[in-house]
Design brief:
Elements (H helix, E strand, L loop, with lengths): L11 H9 L3 E6 L5 H15 L6 E6 L2 H15 L1 H5 L3 E4 L4 E4 L5 E6 L13 E5 L6 H13 L4 E6 L6 H9 L5 E6 L1 H4 L4 H10 L2 H7 L15 H9 L4 H4 L4 E6 L7 E8 L2 E2 L3 E4 L3 H15 L3 E5 H13 L5 E3 L14 H14 L10 H6 L4 E3 L5 E3 L2 H7 L7 H8 L10 H12 L10
Parallel strand pairs: 1-7, 1-8, 2-5, 2-6, 6-7, 9-13, 13-14
Antiparallel strand pairs: 3-4, 4-5, 9-10, 10-11, 10-12, 15-16
The chain binds adenosine-5'-triphosphate and magnesium ion (MG).
Length: 441
């Protein structure tokens, strides 16, 4: 019997992706690159080779109808030789193909009907057009379905602003069992140069950046800080002499209810340093960590979110440290312009970023968090930053910008750098326990 071929010659980027896949994968590509093609072929390959009992693989698009429109016909076309030879059965109503040699099933799903996936055991899934998929479908349905037999997942799509896709892409870069790749239209060779030029002329700059150059930031005009600006800030580094005249400031964002991440963020002038990020610690432990940092780094001001940090603030004061409480919801120093203190701090931070601020490379999700909140103008023409609650709703519980809040706290009030004489006096008073108020807060 002559071998059956599937008639697939992967493009060079497709071959690279097929070869480098890990258990979890986020692959970012421009429009018309061949994403869906790659997804279908990866799934067929998995079905053909799987040796597990009753394997199930899935292809998921944001809507079931969309999955059917973009993948069903192509899947059957690719398998036509196997279907004709009776090696694959097509269950049209279930959008499922069954591979007879091992019983593997390949089924199409839509994120608009996550219930169809609940309780299933999945051995692998491709999530196409990730940017339009609701995050909870991944978190609450697919992830548990992959757990039984350590199934794999491939997220593939074109950017569409800040959402599950961008979130996964940036988070994945830090995790060793995740593979990430990004190919723009200039990397894949999938589109002729002439066609790229034509698209550039006919599309808005924003749409071209998003659809062809895979720019996650080219979606929202209402984003306070663009990802590009955050990434530029992560590439800048200052020498000590550049910042030595600036005050050292600590921002402390204690964990809030239902969230276990506490952040201590040091910044000196244009340079923000790598934050200390702690999980699941209580107020006393956090206060001890802040106290250590104060002792070793001698900041001129420490700003702590009062909403969640009352216990930390009390403890630090008890230990003799001068700290400033910041009420995120409180009145801004410029109330005509800003709805509340938090908006004002974030806007000051946004100006700092575009005027040369430098942020640490690590953790990489900092850049994403900075680019997450949007803003609006209210009836009083005040700027109002998207609340944490609304961000959580938009990103389905993930994406709480604690790191961003930590850094924003360092902009709570202007801090002036003390003269050497003032510094010496502060040191003496601190040693003798006589420092009663912070002159720089
Ligand atoms: N390896 C390949 N060999 C030949 N043709 C291919 C290959 N990969 C993709 N194509 C063709 O290129 C076109 C675009 O592919 P596909 O639909 O997979 O791209 P996409 O990135 O999913 O596009 P979109 O952004 O519109 O979703 C299709 O006509 C497809 O058949
Ligand atoms: Mg596609």
């Amino acid at each position: 019997m002559s071998p059956i071929t599937l008639d697939y010659q992967p493009r060079s980027w497709q071959a690279r992706v097929h070869k480098r896949l890990k258990r979890f994968n986020v692959v970012v590509l421009h429009r018309r690159a061949g994403k869906t093609e790659l997804a279908i072929m990866e799934l067929i390959d998995a079905c053909l080779k799987c040796e597990l009992e009753m394997p199930l693989f899935g292809y998921l698009a944001p809507f079931r109808n969309q999955a059917k429109n973009i993948a069903w016909g192509r899947l059957k076309h690719r398998l036509r030789a196997l279907i004709a030879a009776g090696l694959c059965a097509v269950l049209e109503g279930d959008l499922t193909v069954v591979f007879k040699h091992n019983g593997a099933e390949l089924r199409l799903f839509g994120a608009d009907n996550p219930d169809a996936m609940r309780g299933l055991r999945l051995d692998g899934i491709v999530i196409d057009e990730v940017a339009q998929v609701k995050p909870e479908v991944w978190q609450e349905v697919i992830q548990p379905a992959l757990a039984d037999r350590e199934g794999w997942a491939l997220f593939i799509g074109t950017p569409k602003g800040i959402n599950l896709f961008s979130e996964l892409y940036y988070r994945a870069q830090k995790q060793s069992d995740w593979h990430t790749a990004l190919f723009t239209c200039h990397d894949t060779g999938a589109l002729p140069k002439r066609e790229i030029e034509r698209l550039r002329r006919n599309m808005s700059q924003e749409a071209f950046s998003r659809e062809l150059l895979c720019d996650f930031t080219a979606a929202g005009v209402d984003q306070l800080i663009s990802l590009i600006d955050a990434e530029d800030a992560a590439r800048r580094v200052y020498a000590l002499r550049d910042i030595s005249e600036s005050p050292r400031i600590l921002g402390v964002d204690p964990a809030r209810f239902g969230d276990d991440r506490s952040v201590i963020f040091p910044r000196q002038g244009l340079q923000a340093f790598e934050p200390i990020v702690m999980h699941g610690i209580d107020n006393m432990q956090l206060a001890a960590r802040v106290a250590d940092k104060i002792e070793s780094w001698q900041p001129q001001a420490v700003f702590i979110d009062a909403g969640n940090g009352a216990g930390v603030i009390d403890r630090l004061r008890q230990l003799g440290h001068q700290v400033n409480e910041v009420d995120f919801g409180g009145k801004a120093a410029k109330p005509k312009r800003f709805r509340n203190r938090r908006t004002e701090m974030w806007c000051t931070m946004a100006e700092w970023i575009v005027s040369g601020g430098s942020i640490p490379d690590d953790p990489p999700e900092l850049r994403l968090e900075l680019a997450t909140p949007t803003y609006t103008f209210n009836a009083q023409q005040q700027r109002e930053l998207e609340s944490k609650k609304d961000i959580k709703k938009r990103l389905a519980g993930s994406g709480s910008p604690d790191l961003g809040d930590g850094l924003a706290l360092t902009f709570a009030s202007p801090v002036h750098k003390p003269t050497p004489l003032e510094e010496a006096r502060t040191r003496t008073r601190r040693r003798s326990g006589r420092l009663e108020h912070n002159p720089y807060g």
